[in-house]
């Protein structure tokens, strides 16, 4: 044997055992950490799924957009001049104040655009009024007063007016179109248009609204 060659002593068995234990401990620690991460991710995914289900359920139940209800509460004649107590004076237009209300049953405000209310007599447009844009708060009723001016000359051009005036009552129709939007939780948006037709019977003796019937139709 060459004297320059040296025999390296083997590592003690205790050192090898300690190294193996450290490696096992490190692997165990990594596995525990990975398990915690998987559990955390699983909980987050489950929470997201539950929230999504809750939102969908609420969207189709509690937060489901409901139809706004338009109602004509009453009509008041502000200005009218009759000749011999029956025929309107053609030089003075008739002014009518209509009390309208918009009932919003949603959990969000209903914003409506400029609307138009028309007054018809035997199918002919004799008066019109514009309603400014606005909004009805959530679960509230918004009331508005609309002044309609009826052009008397158009009314007198209808041949049935004399017979109706002689009976003491005049029947007219009103048509209101209201478009708007409901926005819930800044996610659900619903555009809708409400159309309302009313038949009104005006008593010429007392100058009051004798009877009124309305029908409402909503289009999404």
Mean pLDDT: 79
Backbone shape: rod-shaped
Distance separating the two termini = 102 Å
Cα-atom Rg, whole angstroms?
A: 39 Å
CATH C-level of the largest domain:
Mainly Beta
User: How would a crystallographer describe the biggest sheet?
Assistant: 10 strands, antiparallel
Instruction: State the order of secondary-structure elements, H for helix, E for strand.
Output: HEEEEEEEEEHHEEE
Corresponding CATH architecture of the largest domain:
Sandwich
Per DSSP E runs of 2 or more residues, the count of β-strands stands at 12
Question: Which regions contain 5 or more consecutive residues with pLDDT less than 50?
Answer: none
Annotation field: number of helices? 3
The class by helix and strand makeup works out as alpha+beta
**What proportion of the residues form beta strands (DSSP E)?**
over 45%
Estimate nothing, just give the exact number of structural domains: 2
CATH topology of the largest domain: Immunoglobulin-like
Estimate the helix proportion, in percent: 25-40%
Give a concise summary.
The chain is built from three helices and twelve strands, in the order αβββββββββααβββ.
List its salient traits.
Lea14-like_2, alpha+beta, Immunoglobulin-like, ten-stranded antiparallel β-sheet, membrane, 220 residues, LEA_2, two-stranded antiparallel sheet, Late embryogenesis abundant protein, transmembrane helix
């Amino acid at each position: 044997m060459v004297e320059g060659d040296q025999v390296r002593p083997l590592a003690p068995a205790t050192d090898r055992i300690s190294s193996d234990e450290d490696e096992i401990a490190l692997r165990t620690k990594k596995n525990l950490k990975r398990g915690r991460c998987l559990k955390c991710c699983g909980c987050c995914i489950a929470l997201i799924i539950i929230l999504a289900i809750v939102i969908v359920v609420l969207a189709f139940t509690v937060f489901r957009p409901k139809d706004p209800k338009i109602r004509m509460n009453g009509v008041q004649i502000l200005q009218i001049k009759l000749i011999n107590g029956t025929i309107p004076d053609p030089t003075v237009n008739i002014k009518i104040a209509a009390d309208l209300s918009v009932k919003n049953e949603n959990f969000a405000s209903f914003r409506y655009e400029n609307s138009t209310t028309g007054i018809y007599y035997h199918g002919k447009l004799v008066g019109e009024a514009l309603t400014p844009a606005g909004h009805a708060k959530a679960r509230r009723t918004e009331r508005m007063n609309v002044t309609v001016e009826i052009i008397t000359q158009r009314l007198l051009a209808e041949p049935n007016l004399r017979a109706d005036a002689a009976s003491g009552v005049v029947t007219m129709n009103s048509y209101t179109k209201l478009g708007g939007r409901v926005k819930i939780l800044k996610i659900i948006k619903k555009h809708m248009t409400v159309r309302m037709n009313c038949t009104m019977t005006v008593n010429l003796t007392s100058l009051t609204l004798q009877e009124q019937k309305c029908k409402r139709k909503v289009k999404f």
